[in-house]
Amino acid sequence: xxxxxxxxxxLGKEYSLSIAFVSEKKSREINKxxxxxxxxxxxxxxxxxxxxxxxxxxxxxxxxELKKFGRTLPQLVGFLVIHGMLHLKGxxxxxxxxxxxxxxxxxxxx
Length: 110
Description:
The chain is of the alpha+beta class. It is 54% helix and 17% strand.
């Protein structure tokens, strides 16, 4: 599976990653609690332990952002999973992260 290989490349073979899809209400609650931003968001990443993390996605927010990102829903899900993994690796937004996102996204069928 291509995302398993990408996960191994970014986070390592032993890293345990879970991906959860939540409602807008739950996304908003989590975003408010952990980032003090009172609105739902498309993706949140949480490093739970050294080699354990979770990516939380909100499909309804993603659907509203399809035009903004110029992607289909499957493409946006793939992009945001990669984006979340890079955050778990410690990367911050910027050119380096964008370059890594495109590199890994090019390995997918999207």
